Amino acid sequence: MSKNEQELSQLGSVFDTRAAYFVCNYFASHDNYLVDLDGNEYLDVYAQISSIALGYNHPELIKVAKSDEMAVALVNRPALGCFPSSDYRTILEEGILAAAPPSLDKVWTSLSGSDANETAFKAAFMYHALQKRGKGTPFTEEEMKSCMENLPPGCPDYVILSFEHGFHGRLFGSLSTTRSKAIHKLDIPAFQWPKTPFPRLKYPLEEFEKENSQEEERCLELFSSVIDQWKGRIVAFIVEPIQSEGGDNHASPYFFQRLREISLEKNVLMIVDEVQTGVASTGKFWAHEHWNLTTPPDFVTFSKKFQAAGFYFQNPEFVPNQPFRQFNTWCGDPSKAIIARTIFKQIQKDNLVSKIREVGDYLYEKLETVFKSTPVTNLRGKGRGTFIAWDFDSAQERNEFLLKMKQHGINIGGCGDSSVRLRTTLIFEKKHADILCDAILKVLNV
Ligand SMILES: O=C(O)CCC(=O)C(=O)O
Ligand SMILES: NCCCC(=O)O
After folding, report:
1. Is 266 a known active-site residue?
2. Are 40 and 409 in contact (CB under 8 A)?
3. What is the pLDDT of residues 37-53, one digit of tens each?
4. Of the residues 121, 125, 167, 313, which is catalytic?
5. Is the Transferase keyword given for this protein (predicted)?
6. Burial letters 185-207, b for 16+ CB under 10 A, else e
7. Which of 14, 45, 61, 304 is 20 to 30 A removed from 387 (C-alpha atoms)?
8. What does the pLDDT average to over 317-324?
9. Is 245 in the pocket of ligand 2 (CB under 6 A)?
10. In DSSP terms, which residues pair with 106 in a beta bridge?
């Protein structure tokens, strides 16, 4: 038995390891390479499900991890809502807020991607209720009583609209908006919230311009009509710039511009879930910057590669009218905000946004050649940094490919039914793209 197998079996007796790819030696892992317990080094193009920005054991992260500032943040973890730390404002201003999407100058920090989305939902619901009730109008006796029974009017029948194949997390509210795979949802009670189709584009895009634009128009019409059908109950919709877990499904900037226009016309708030797409990997710091919206989204949520989680917003009325409405013990975590600040500074210092755009273009072009005369279809993600994916005909073929890639020293992940997705770090270079392509050529026998 290898060390890996041994540890997996021992850990497996106290912790569910059935989803484990292998046991990692994070002490030995470095930059783009993840090392397992048997000492095998993998070029990692999955990066902890899209969550490692600067590679493993980046010296600047290690340095800040060893700082007094970090030690104090960790051992005296503040309940930020009640007892914010003296340095939280600067940590935010120099990091998370300095990285904010255009026009969104405020942030609420939370604990995970799911929590980021759910706190944005709550902000949207409370804002909507405030508009209906009228500012300054106190809660009624009936509202106060009925909410304790989980009933309206205190708990109104407002809903969040999401897209088929979208993934927004696994807590109750976020899972209700998640529509990628049944395995995520089975046996869990869910809100009866609406969904609407996300475009299924055909590739190569240049060959299917007409079909794809018809498909986007079809989805836009349904988006608009579902909002009408729900007669004012849809308070917000949530959308990923590229549906990731659900299969790396893309849509054009035009599609998102129209979503924004329709949502403004119909008074529905827009939540852009940048948990996976955010923090540079698509070649812009935030993927929705590719759309050139004239009115920014109402909320942009983040987590994963930023390590810290939360949502950005601009409208001061998204802060509830009373304290303790958007609240929990932690309200974020300064240690994670310090890490986010370090990540942001390093991205700026090393010019990683434009570097990942360049290496992404290089890799995409190479893959176009590599995949000629192979069963691979639907290569996608052109002009989106290293946020690249492709399809096999079946889940079985895809899974065999992933396994063989591992045998050739590449840690790589799937998504959707039969897709492979690249989720590289931001320090992925052309030399790594070459290694990746060589391994693909070997695995596909071309
Ligand atoms: O399955 C999960 O909860 C992780 C989801 C995710 O973000 C992904 O797989 O892209
Ligand atoms: N969303 C599931 C991610 C786990 C995996 O298959 O890598």
Report:
1. no
2. yes
3. 999 999 999 999 999 99
4. 167
5. yes
6. eeeeeeeebbbbebbebebeeee
7. 61
8. 97
9. yes
10. 313
Q: Strands across the sheet with 389-391, in order?
A: 377-380, 389-391, 419-421, 413-415
Give the pLDDT band (50/70/90) at residue 305: very high
Domains of the chain are: 3-57+351-443 (3.90.1150.10), 69-348 (3.40.640.10)
pLDDT > 90 fraction of the chain, expressed in percent and rounded: 99
Mean pLDDT computed over 280-284: 98
Contact of 312 with 104, CB cutoff 8 Å = yes
**Taking Cα atoms as reference points, which of 412, 390, 391 lies closest to residue 402?**
412
Among 415, 417, 421, residue to substitute to test ligand 2 (most atoms within 8 Å of Cβ): 415
Catalytic site residue from 90, 140, 329, 369: 329
Checking ipTM against 0.95, whether it exceeds it is: yes
Categorize the per-residue pLDDT at 107 as very low, low, confident or very high, splitting at 50, 70 and 90: very high
pLDDT band at 154 (very low <50, low <70, confident <90, very high): very high
- pLDDT at residue 47 in the model: 98
CA torsion through residues 4, 414, 245, 314, sign = positive
The span from the CA of 442 to the CA of 408, in Å, is 8
Ligand with an atom nearest the CA of residue 18: 2
The reply to whether 304 belongs to the active site is yes
Atom in ligand 2 nearest the alpha carbon of residue 180: 1
* Catalytic-residue membership of 371: no
Query: Ligand 1 pocket, 178 CB below 6 A?
Result: no
Separation CA 36–CA 96 (nearest Å) = 32
Query: Could you say which DSSP state residue 291 is in?
Result: G
Give me ligand 1 centre to Cα 245, in Å. Answer: 6
d(CA 246, CA 242) in angstroms, rounded, equals 9
Provide the sign of the torsion angle of the four alpha carbons 221, 219, 112, 193, taken in this order: positive
Mean pLDDT, residues 165-172: 98
Tokens of 416: 């959707």
Annotation marks residue 273 as catalytic: yes
**What pLDDT does 338 receive?**
98
CA of 90 to the centre of ligand 1 (A): 31
Check pocket membership of 49 for ligand 2, CB cut-off 6 A: yes
CB-ligand 1 contact for 245 (6 Å cutoff):
yes
Position 115 scores a pLDDT of: 98
Contact criterion met (CB below 8 Å) for 104 and 296: yes
Q: How far apart are CA 436 and CA 418, in angstroms?
A: 19
pTM above 0.95, yes or no: yes
The per-residue pLDDT for 446 is 75
